[in-house]
Design a protein that fits this description.
heterodimer, A: alpha+beta, Aldehyde Ferredoxin Oxidoreductase Protein, subunit A, domain 3, 3 domains, six-stranded mixed β-sheet, 19 strands, about 40% helix, B: alpha+beta, Arc Repressor Mutant, subunit A, three-stranded antiparallel β-sheet, about 15% strand
């Protein structure tokens, strides 16, 4: 039994080159880094040298979970997978993929806070983790199989309770655009190829233990209820999408879709989602229907139910039943996913014969989920599909691909919005068949380089939403103006930060958002109404810092940053306040290590700083401001050429963004000129040895 | 005194019950309901002032119970424990001219959030207007100077939104409609 609650107490280390399996004490080595990405960054910093490439045996891959994984804390199902990122261009840098599902909890029940995989097996293997019994097993019979078959095969051996994280053919074939997936629909993008490079087909985990809660159980129960009461729908949208008797506010853009008369039509019997009054905690799971949100009203008739991660009542993976697809496409009539996973197939097409929210679009989603979630193809937050459309309609495919190969695709089907086109495209990406598919599987940056297309063309194109380093923006200026821009400069993949967008999109009137913002970041001016942005101020920089640290904290604790933070709520009696301390309250009670909100944020800052240090070390550059924290040109444009700060545009102003970066660096106590953290900042956050190492390399400002 | 308290308690129950079902109730309806339930003596039935006094006192003593004045001069009652002020406002407007309902909802949304409102939203509960009725309202609005601020914008996927030009300019309204209808889902 671990001394503390929360943590399982052990980190599992598996060297696939030697077959050596060992464990180490979590708290002894990683306590200052909490878990999740914290352990991941620490391992990469300590053990993977600068210059190592993603698919080198010397690269490591860390499946990290946090002290709240497997507890009763809501939304605790996230596993952070940290490694050198294969789609990061022009060179691999550290990044993390994040999968929900059941893997995180099962890993804790098996007794581990993380798995570190190193080396490379000499043949295909899978890793069986069944409590203390850890075995490297032959996977030759699984190699070449899709994720579903692999999962079923391993579940047959380990039992249905086991959680299986597997790669498909895309990962096996070292396509950088590949995922690892557990529980059939919960994927972490970008890392499938790294597993493939290690000949690691899957990890099956089964645990029969439990997670100890150190604190008073009644207090814990009370806290869980408080947290549940603060939840909105998916993405912490705290108002329903239409007027309802209990609701003071509503918003047509809300993911809180439940309402009297809106039914899960494919459930048997069908279910009326009804009025999900926020105090009724037993109806939280009815609030969200992401299929209806993304695919339109037609999706209600196909909805079976919501699905999701351990201990999360939100159920953002909507399960759809579309009987027509069995006969038409020969695929199962059931499918489930959320957001870009749900839209995977649809997003390739410019149009459909019956419109963007018609039956064909839904069928394209079903085909896309069926193929991508089995082959393990990643879409880089929709960049794959945006690139595909641009490359086809601009004639680039035709120019870059041999005529015979180009003509082997049914482009007429593609242009007509026929989902069967996906059967031609996606398996070829996964199997790296032909130039077109192989290039797409590399990711944007490597594709552009391979085909001699200047990155600048992508940086200028507003429609492509490309940001830098081979990746797109993820909630940038469209969501929170300068705050979104700052956040998108910081990571080595798409930013994956929702702290800011979950606040700005929560559906509350701007006057309420401003009141909450004043309490959180010191001034109502920290937030603006959508597309009515005002010039930069210090409070926006505070919000940016807070957003980044909360994201990192969630990734370390296994909380879901797609759901949190919970600083707004659906509760009128709280004047729609959430609780900015919920993470520290949960952490303190679960672990017994009492930490205030500020203390926990300081740890998150340390972890975020280590990510920064790793980026600086591996880039071999300290001038982060101009070499890393770059902003694409499209951010400073507007389709109607409206001026920045006029209403109706998300256009940013170059001088203002310079000021924004100044203010952010100041807020972080980094050097303003280079954007590099100072020695004093490293020391203040307990990373003195990291500063010393960077100093030796001439990488301190 | 005890009897007066009993009457007030009965009135409160009736208001809260009605709110529970998502509806407002007028003084007239409260009286009818009291009678139907046999909760008034014959002496109490006649004088209207008796009910008015009891209602007034119930309102003063119970902060959850609110009064809302409809444009036709009728007062309605509801409990905010079960029915929000926003929803009550919509119900009151609904009891009147649908033109007014659409215009006021659009103006409020344009001013407060700010955002335009999808036309299709008026076909859903609690508005429950038919498409034909909505289109007719919009036609009439176009000709009535009282509604000249109610304007339309159409998103890139063909969905029509309404906004009030008193609070949103056309470009801003167009951008917000596109954000609600297309932008948020395309940037998930």
């Amino acid at each position: 039994m671990a001394k503390h609650g929360g943590w399982a107490g052990k980190v599992l280390r598996v060297d696939l080159s030697t077959g050596k399996i060992s464990t180490e004490d979590t708290l002894e080595k990683y306590r200052d880094y909490l878990g999740g990405t914290g352990i991941g960054y620490k391992v990469i910093w300590d053990e993977v040298q600068a210059g190592v490439k993603s698919f080198d045996p010397a690269n490591k891959i860390v499946y990290g979970v946090g002290p709240l994984a497997g507890t009763g804390a809501p939304c605790n199902g996230r596993t952070a997978i940290t490694t050198l990122w294969p789609t990061c261009w022009p060179k691999a840098l550290v990044a993390s993929g994040h999968m929900g599902g059941q893997f995180a909890a099962e890993l804790k029940y098996a007794g581990y806070d993380a798995i570190i995989i190193e080396g490379r097996a000499d043949r295909p293997v899978w890793l069986s983790v069944w409590d203390e019994k850890v075995e490297i097993k032959d996977a030759r019979q699984l190699w070449g199989q899709g994720i579903r078959r692999t999962t079923i095969e391993i579940n047959q051996q380990m039992g249905p309770e086991a959680s299986v994280a597997a790669i498909g053919q895309a990962g096996e074939n070292l396509a950088p655009m590949s995922v690892v997936m557990n529980s059939y629909s919960h994927s972490a993008g970008g890392v499938g190829g790294v597993m493939g490079s290690k000949n690691l087909k899957a990890i099956g985990v089964r645990g029969t233990g439990s997670v100890r809660i150190a604190g008073n159980k009644e207090e814990w129960e009370k806290l869980i209820k408080l947290h549940l009461s603060l939840l909105g729908a998916n993405n912490q949208h705290v108002v329903p999408s239409n007027p309802q008797p209990w609701a003071e506010h509503y918003n047509a853009g809300s993911r809180w879709m439940a309402s009297a008369g809106r039914r899960w039509g494919a459930a048997n019997p069908s279910i009326d989602t009804g009025a999900c009054e926020p105090h009724n905690l037993n109806r939280i799971a009815y609030r969200t229907n992401n299929a209806a949100y993304f695919l339109g009203d037609k999706a209600w008739q196909h909805t079976v139910r919501g699905n999701g991660c351990t201990a999360c009542p939100i159920r953002c993976h909507t399960m759809l039943k579309v009987p027509a697809v069995s006969a038409k496409y020969g695929i199962p009539e059931l499918g489930q996913n959320t957001c870009v996973g749900l839209l995977f197939g649809r997003a390739f097409f410019k149009s459909f014969p019956d419109g963007p929210k018609g039956q064909t679009a839904i069928e394209a989603c079903m085909v896309g989920m069926y193929l991508a979630d089995d082959l393990g193809v990643w879409d880089n937050y929709g960049q794959l599909q945006r690139d595909f459309q641009a490359l086809y309609y601009n004639g680039i495919f035709k120019r870059k691909v041999a005529e015979k190969e180009f003509n082997s695709y049914s482009w007429n089907k593609y242009e007509q919005g026929d989902p069967t086109f996906l059967f031609e495209l996606l398996p070829r990406i996964a199997n790296k068949e032909g130039e077109l598919a192989t290039a797409l599987g590399l990711g944007t940056g490597h594709l552009l380089e391979r085909w001699g297309i200047p990155e600048q063309e992508w940086l200028e194109n507003h429609d492509l939403l490309y940001w830098k380093l081979g990746h797109p923006k993820h909630h940038s200026n469209e969501d929170a103006g300068q705050c979104g821009v700052i956040i998108n400069t910081q990571y080595n993949r798409d930013a994956q930060c929702h702290s800011h967008s979950n606040f700005t999109r929560n559906g509350l009137p701007i006057e309420v958002q401003k009141r909450l913002a004043a309490e959180l970041w010191g001034s109502p001016d920290a937030v603006d109404a959508v597309a009515a942005f005002t010039p930069m101020n210090a409070h926006k920089a505070k919000m940016a810092k807070w957003s980044l640290l909360r994201k990192e904290l969630h990734d370390c604790l296994s909380l879901c940053n797609w759901m949190g933070p919970w600083v707004a709520s659906p509760l009128k009696e709280r004047e729609y306040r959430g609780d900015d301390s919920i993470e520290s309250l949960l952490y303190s009670l679960a672990t017994g290590d009492k930490k205030s909100r500020q203390e926990l944020d300081t740890i998150a800052e340390r972890i975020f700083l280590l990510h920064r240090a790793l980026t600086i070390r591996d880039m071999g550059a300290k001038d982060m401001r101009t070499k890393h924290d770059t902003i694409p040109d499209w951010v400073f444009t507007d389709p109607k050429d409206k001026a920045a700060f006029s209403k109706g545009t998300i256009r940013m102003d170059k001088e203002d963004i310079k000021l924004a970066m100044d203010m952010f660096y100041e807020e972080m106590a980094w050097d303003k000129e280079t954007g590099s953290p100072t020695k004093a900042t490293y020391r203040r956050l307990g990373l003195g040895t990291v500063a010393d190492e960077l100093a030796k390399r001439g990488l301190l400002p | 005194m005890e009897r007066q308290e009993e009457v007030r308690a009965n009135i409160l129950n009736i208001i809260r019950d009605r709110s529970e079902s998502g509806r407002l109730i007028s003084a007239e309806e409260i009286l009818t309901e009291l009678k139907r339930r046999g909760l008034l003596t014959s002496e109490e039935i006649k004088p209207k002032t008796h009910l008015e006094t009891a209602l007034k006192q119930a309102l003063q003593e119970n902060r959850d119970v609110k009064e809302i004045l409809a444009p036709n001069g009728v007062c309605y009652y509801y409990s905010v424990r079960r029915l929000s002020e926003t929803y009550a406002g919509i119900l009151v407007l609904k009891s009147e001219n649908p033109l007014w309902l659409i215009a006021e909802v659009v103006r409020e949304n344009s001013k407060r959030y700010p955002r335009p409102v999808p036309v299709a939203g008026f076909m859903e509960s609690p508005f429950d207007l038919t498409l034909e009725a909505i289109l007719e309202c919009l036609r009439v609005m176009g000709e009535d100077k009282e509604y000249q601020d109610i304007a339309q914008t159409i998103t890139s996927v063909g969905k029509t939104f309404l906004y009030s030009s008193r609070h949103l300019d056309p470009d801003y309204a167009s951008m917000l409609a596109e954000w609600l209808d297309v932008g948020q889902a395309d940037n998930p």
